[in-house]
Please model this.
Amino acid sequence: MTFNRANCPWAMGASVPARSARPSIHAKSMLENSQWRALVVDDDAGVRQSLRLCLESDGARVLGVGTTQGTLDAVERAGFELVVLDLWLGSESGLDVIPEILHRQPGVAIVVITAFATFETAVEAIKRGAYDYLPKPFTPDQVRQVARRALKHGRQRRLASSPDLAETGGPDDAFFETESPINRTFLQNALRAAGAEVPILLRGESGTGKNVLAKWLWLQSARAKAPFVGVNCASLSTALMNSTIFGHKQGAFAAASEDAAGSIELAEGGVVFLDEVSDLSLESQSRLLRFLNDGTFERLGEVKQRRANVRVVAATNAPIEQHVRAGRFREDLFFRLNVLTLQVPPLRDRREDVISLAHYYLRRAAERQRRPEPAFGVRAERAMLAYDWPGNLRELKNAVERALILCPGSTIGPDDLGIPAPTEEGQPALDRPVALGADVSLEALEREHLARVAARAPTLESAARILGIDVTTLQRKRKRYRLA
Model:
């Protein structure tokens, strides 16, 4: 059977057959073991349904839309590995939306379909970034074959072009190599947490890599074959929060031209990452609390209760306990998210890793910019070890990329990095690991001990209790050692 208007009953306006409320064993197993996500774009609802059934039988989770605006909204809200795109969407050209799709999701595989196939349109589609071209009529086997080829091609492209994917367990795992006892303990705890089926709250300063760590936790978990969907709560207006996270029904608000699934629905079987969760509105907090309690939710403007099997990983750099006391964050939601908290150590508390991380970022930047890789001079390395990096990993990465561009020769100096140069006299013991019995001062040992205890303690009050001092003394010492 081929999918076209001439012989497909769905394409000729007949009613779409209802799906069985209880799928076959085969279909059920495919859905439970879903490994990839597809977006089907066609202005014909029957063709969308045909392609949906075909791709779902091959293990996909499929979202269907019928307009160019719906396409852009979908790729803005969730990640896809495959986009099946009709050449014509009413009076709009599907070719025109290809660059926008690739801009929002670099490396996604696009397959163009049309009933009006010509050599010229095929060439034009490939020029604009499509992977392949499938003329109508086509059989289910043809759809599945081209989808499999496109998936393989797209995955290879994304691994080759995305440093974030490399950092989360792709071809280069150097990002997670550590010589720091603090970071080694943190990663061991994180690995144990990845295998649990409870929410995770990542806490830490801005720039410590919480987003990358969330993806790493997903890849280390049993949910790695299902989707990872990220939501930056800080970038959403209050009006968009519920729609983005929980979805909406057509007509729920002025711009809701069609039904749309939210991030939780799109992450079925996998992980939804709520970055800057402390910025959620109180209404969104109530909805999230309900979902965490019983796994149910409603789309905005809809009364139908839905259910999803999704693990929530949240992150914040805010003092969330203060938000709770001020009434800006629900205490019961905080307790629900705080089942498993991971405190991401700042870079100044893991100085043993600074040089290796700098080399990692330099290598990645040189590869991306196709430049020869310069070397770090001795003064540059001493400066990096002495600097506190208030912007953490993000600041280090930006400084290295800056140095790669501005360095006039083959050796990077402190000025190229944009950080203070080291003093001419000997450096303190910050440029080597601090350990009991090492050739370091008592002051350096105290600084290291304070940093490690504060990094793993959930609050300063509990850190002070461990250290046997009051909070005021701890704060004074942290300020003295530039830990606060």
